[in-house]
Amino acid sequence: MKIAFIGAGSMAEAILKGILNKEACSPQNLWVTNRQAQARLESLREQYAVQITYDLQALLHNADMVILAVKPKNAEEILQQLSPYLTKQMFIVSVMAGISIESISTNLKNDYAVARVMPNTSASVGKSATAITFNEFVSQEQQQLAQTIFKAIGSTVIVEENKLDAITALSGSGPAYFYYIVEAMEKAAEQLGIEKDMARQLIIQTMNGAIHMLQETGKEAAELRDNVTSPGGTTEAGLKVLQEQEVAKTFANCILAAEKQSKKLAALSHEQIK
Ligand SMILES: NC(=O)C1=CN([C@@H]2O[C@H](COP(=O)(O)OP(=O)(O)OC[C@H]3O[C@@H](n4cnc5c(N)ncnc54)[C@H](O)[C@@H]3O)[C@@H](O)[C@H]2O)C=CC1
Ligand SMILES: O=C(O)[C@@H]1CCC=N1
Q1: Does residue 37 have its Cβ closer than 6 Å to ligand 1?
Q2: By CB neighbour count within 10 A (0-12 exposed, 13-18 middle, 19+ buried), where does 108 fall?
Q3: Pyrroline-5-carboxylate reductase dimerisation domain spans which residues (predicted)?
Q4: If pLDDT is split at 50, 70 and 90, which confidence band does 124 have?
């Protein structure tokens, strides 16, 4: 099986690293291109032994799956560039935020099998939460292939396309929200005089433990939070500040804003493409 990556940024690298870690495809069959940054392509070849090229014909020759991993603003340009080299049996898989299957198909001017996928960067350690949607031209075999590839980088859910903007906001962007919390906790630890490496270790293990509690107990987050919060204790004092500052509401607004932006990217791509 041959997979061609269009775009060699952080998402493409996260996916290809996950695929290689799970040996879901051999590096000889993973082909990658980008716009112009040759040094970046060479470093991917050195690190992962993947094939690199700027020759679109060579890149796409006999490709089973073509993964579109360029920024949404480059969608129109890339679809037009690829169009002459695509054949009907190729399976087009887009990870571009906000770009609808309809926009992709319209621009490719043909009834290709297309999947729209929303992974996240935890793919590079095999822990992506990936949502997938297919158009009507995707065969059972291709659906299976998509599941195999994206299960190699974490967990998958199959969804209706109209859920993808919300999922992009929730789990596509999601890792960034958690990193933001870690940054804030690290700053607080510094203010309190806790040595940096130790603070990092304590924070990571605390998050890891909380995640395992959620997974293994199956309890609601609110109940687990209650279990930490002794009346008149430290947690209560800390959480009071979060409540006063309406952090939960701010968080919800953060995710709603991300969803709105995903819809905006879709609208922009429609304008460009039509
Ligand atoms: N970074 C993330 O956490 C996630 C990103 N995505 C989506 O993945 C896509 C890629 O995101 P990143 O990897 O973060 O972006 P990036 O900016 O790191 O990489 C984009 C890549 O596209 C290449 N490119 C641009 N125009 C090109 C062209 N005409 N021909 C060939 N290559 C071209 C660039 O050279 C670069 O290698 C985006 O559409 C984004 O919405 C989806 C889920 C999560
Ligand atoms: O920020 C973005 O647009 C991409 C999509 C999801 C995560 N990163």
Answers
A1: yes
A2: middle
A3: 161-265
A4: confident
